[in-house]
């Protein structure tokens, strides 16, 4: 793994721990939490602090909102297609979990939101997502649209302001968000979570949501 990419993975894990555990996670009112039996993370103030409305562009060039995309239980990941190894590995894990969930009888949608709109046009996204999984939804947009979505999900990314070539890397966090209709964000998964463990946890949340 290149040093810069390894730093991305390490920084992402550290930032995630600080953001979702150090800042938000102090106590949880589990008695009022319908997902208490499923939850592995602890987010004070409720899961509503993460996620929200977005307007982006899908891989077919259509402007869509969260209401158009997150119509089923969904696994949402922020990354970019030029990512040398972290994003392909994470998305490979996510779509493998989708296949496990399919076998378990759960219909869950994988979603990939690009943080690199300079290179990730709808056409580029379509080729990349279709290669990974037939149901994977790719989303891009203007820099402002992507920043708004990332801010809503409390995730970090940083691309070079004026890259000198087309081989630049984008620093970004690597968590995967489980989103449920009528509930929004309910859980996040680190990149160390296996497909089977992710699927087992996601199925618990889907069952608890009724």
From TrEMBL:
Organism placement in taxonomy: Bacteria, Pseudomonadati, Pseudomonadota, Alphaproteobacteria, Rhodobacterales
Species, as recorded: Albidovulum sediminicola
Family of this protein: Belongs to the SCO1/2 family.
InterPro entries: SCO1/SenC, Thioredoxin-like_sf
The protein's name in its UniProt record: SCO family protein
Classification via SUPFAM superfamilies: Thioredoxin-like
Source organism, top-level taxon: Bacteria
């Amino acid at each position: 793994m290149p040093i810069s990419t390894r730093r991305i993975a390490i920084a992402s894990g550290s930032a995630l721990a600080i953001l979702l555990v150090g800042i938000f996670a102090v106590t949880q009112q589990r008695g009022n939490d319908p997902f208490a039996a499923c939850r592995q993370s602890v987010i004070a103030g409720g899961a509503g602090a993460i996620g929200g409305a977005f307007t982006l562009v899908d891989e077919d060039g259509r402007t869509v909102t969260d209401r158009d995309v997150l119509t089923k239980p969904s696994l949402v990941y922020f990354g970019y297609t030029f990512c040398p190894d972290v994003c392909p590995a994470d998305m490979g894990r996510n779509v493998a979990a989708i296949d496990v969930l399919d076998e378990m009888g759960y219909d869950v949608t994988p979603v990939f939101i690009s943080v690199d709109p300079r290179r990730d046009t709808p056409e580029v996204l379509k080729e990349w997502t279709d290669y990974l999984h037939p149901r994977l939804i790719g989303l891009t947009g203007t820099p402002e649209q992507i920043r708004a979505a990332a801010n809503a999900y409390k995730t970090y990314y940083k691309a070079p302001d004026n890259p000198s070539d087309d081989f630049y890397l984008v620093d970004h966090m690597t968590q995967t968000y489980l989103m449920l209709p009528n509930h929004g964000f309910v859980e996040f998964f680190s990149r160390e979570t296996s497909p089977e463990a992710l699927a087992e946890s996601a199925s618990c949340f889907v069952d608890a949501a009724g």
